[in-house]
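$ ./design --mode recover --in tokens.txt
reading tokens...
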């Protein structure tokens, strides 16, 4: 693996040197590829176009990110920004590379979560769009366009992760392939119309399953905090280490989002029926609401409190998008029509 890691570092160096002028673009792409962007950006946009696709985005994002977390605990993947120093292979020639605020993630590196979750959730979007275009135009070329954009998007997300030293190339490839497979499989098993008990039970199973695996590996003498220690040791700036990139943050986000999805479908089965103009208004208001929900400061000590509030934050996300905002818009427009 040393040779693969070494070549990955030199590739990152060449990428930074040749595309440094596109730094802002790569940072934007890595932000779009962040798993939380699937819940906060892609979900509301998709839901107000197609309710089923919106529900599928939350479902696929949560399950694929959970599987990514479990895979990382088992595979022990290194990250370039700490491996450069830990390997001691670059004493004679240090690579000319730079870190960024998004570089210092604290979980293991393999497979790439950005690539895996992006490949899974964006497959839901492009497959739905491709099918829609073909049903309306019967043009193979036009309906194939979303799939081409899908490939370009995955390449861009992967390159951005290599550029900022968050992943090695093989981790990006592994994440993309795995995410694509999960997207294809999970998009055919969307839990529409399931009772609240299903979502509650599924969320508890994901939580207990991850905690059981964590406890089992710890019992075997495997220290699962190794990546956090290395991230803190080799990150250029201490403030770039954030608790919301820790493995348990992913776990609480996924469990919270799934429970929130179940609650939203329980409160309003089938969702609100809105014309296009109220849908657009709902999308705008929901996006602003999620922006402020995401920016809510959470106390990082004690960590249990942080994770509990982080869980609640993502329980709120589907409520806001599927129930509260479209409900208020419906009431407002309904009254206006009656007047």
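writing sequence...
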């Amino acid at each position: 693996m040393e040779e693969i890691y070494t070549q990955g570092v030199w590739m990152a160096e060449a990428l930074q040197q040749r595309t440094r002028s596109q730094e802002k673009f790569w940072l934007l792409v890595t932000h779009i590829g962040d798993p939380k962007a699937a819940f906060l950006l892609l979900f509301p946009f998709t839901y107000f176009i197609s309710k089923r696709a919106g529900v599928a985005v939350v479902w696929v994002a949560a399950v694929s990110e959970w599987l990514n977390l479990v895979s990382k605990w088992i595979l022990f993947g290194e990250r370039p920004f700490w491996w450069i120093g830990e390997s001691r292979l670059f004493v004679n020639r240090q690579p000319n590379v730079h870190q960024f605020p998004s570089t210092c993630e604290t979980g293991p590196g393999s497979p790439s979560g950005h690539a895996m979750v992006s490949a899974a959730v964006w497959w839901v979007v492009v497959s739905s769009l491709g099918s829609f275009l073909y049903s309306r135009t019967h043009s193979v070329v036009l309906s194939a366009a979303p799939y081409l954009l899908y490939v370009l998007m995955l390449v861009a997300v992967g390159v951005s992760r290599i550029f900022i030293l968050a992943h090695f190339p093989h981790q990006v490839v592994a994440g993309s392939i795995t995410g694509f497979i999960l997207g294809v499989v999970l998009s055919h098993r969307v839990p529409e119309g399931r009772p609240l008990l299903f979502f509650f039970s599924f969320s508890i199973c994901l939580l207990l399953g991850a905690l059981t695996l964590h406890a089992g590996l710890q019992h075997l003498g495997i220290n699962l905090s190794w990546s956090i220690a290395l991230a803190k040791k080799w990150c250029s700036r201490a403030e770039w280490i954030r608790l919301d990139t820790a493995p348990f943050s992913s776990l609480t986000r996924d469990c919270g989002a799934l429970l929130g999805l179940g609650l939203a479908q329980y409160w309003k089965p089938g969702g609100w029926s809105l014309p296009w103009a109220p849908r657009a208004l709902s999308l705008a208001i929901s996006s602003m609401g999620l922006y402020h929900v995401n920016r809510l400061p959470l106390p990082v000590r004690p960590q249990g409190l942080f994770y509990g509030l982080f869980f609640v934050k993502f329980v709120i996300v589907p409520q806001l998008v599927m129930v509260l905002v479209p409900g208020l818009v419906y009431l407002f427009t309904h009254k206006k029509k009656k007047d």
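exit 0
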